[in-house]
Amino acid sequence: MPTGSGNEVQTASDETDARRRARLRLELAASYYEQGQTTVALDELKQALNLDPNYADAYNLRGLIYMRLNDLKLSEESFRRAISINPRDASALHNYGWFLCQNGRYPESQRVFSQALANPLYLDRAKTLLAQGLCEARAGQREQAESTLTRAYELDAANPVTGYNLALLLYLRGEYTRAQFYIRRINNSGLANAESLWLGVRVERRMNNPEAMLQLGEQLKRRFPESKEALAYGRGTFND
Question: In terms of pTM, does the model score above 0.85?
Fold first, then answer.
């Protein structure tokens, strides 16, 4: 959201005609982006920025599009431009943090995620905590990742990605009872997939629960017979 003079936050009543027309172009661009039509989305963004050259939200989406196109230079330039216009834009900070993480720039990504989370008005805190936790795990900071993912889980316990990655970290650390709690919640819902079932198999194996292990293994083979997890189960390759 653009800011006015000082620290005053602009509201809908402050929207200029140019910003309104640019916003409509941005909404079209976002729709094309979601449909995978990146070239058309970029054209709409160009028109939005011609109407309003200081539209931070447009630069944020531009960064996502170039990130999808693997144009790292233009992607980073876009995110940095969005943040320079509106340093309080937690969405742009989140996206830039993920960009940095994807490119192995872990210390920078952690600083940017922290900036996003410092905004008291930010509503997608669970999403950013999840991204931050995943990046910490990639960087080998497993203890910190577990703490961050736990915070994300407390805010959004229904997110299976958070639950799975938290269970995986606990499993790798030998905390099998706690890992079982999180992975069972996923596998007992409609959100189970090959990865979650396979982790469930390995957790139950470690806990000497052959019946639960067999049940999950049979479900894995039945539902995802061609997956690498089902093939590993069939070979008895548990990788531990």
Answer: yes
